[in-house]
Hints:
Blueprint: E1 2-10, H1 13-23, E2 27-37, H2 42-45, E3 49-57, E4 60-68, E5 79-86, H3 89-98, E6 102-118, E7 121-129, E8 136-144, H4 149-162, H5 175-186
Amino acid sequence: MIEAELKARVHAPTEVVRMLDDRAVGMAEIYEDTYYDLPGGVLDRKDAELRVRTVYGPTGTRTVLTYKGAQVDEASGSKPEQETVVGDAEATHAILRGLGYEPVIAFRKKCRNYAFTERGRDLLATLVRVPEVDGTFLEVETLVDADQVTPALDDIRAVLAALGIGEADLTRELYTDAVRARRSTLL
Length: 187
């Protein structure tokens, strides 16, 4: 499956929250993300990602192992994605290190998730604040087959427009890159 996703900077977060609250019940969660790669940046050179995410929320804690392949849509950065819930975060980290993967960056995200159906698609809208990065972001995504990426992104653009977010607000900036850049200025 492909994660068709668009990310935008949000200039009026309170208004966007109000409009999302009209669509679904939001759930506040904290994501603790650790990205792994092989020595020499093997995954990075292939435009792939390997992540362990521990999610802390009102319904408990869960850990998800995710692999994202190379992007299939250059404009959005949408990628094939495989993920699975794992039972033990520490064991998962230990297994990856034992296989030769090294943690390359770790950080936390404060998220508010909204799951809803619009334009015939199951969507997840996530408002994101990364403490080390200025601003609020909105990610809207859906999982689709490869032949549905373009229509799915068109539907996501329509949802973003309804939330007052235009093409000029879209960004391809990765949180990993933004956190790295911020940390490099602190050295």
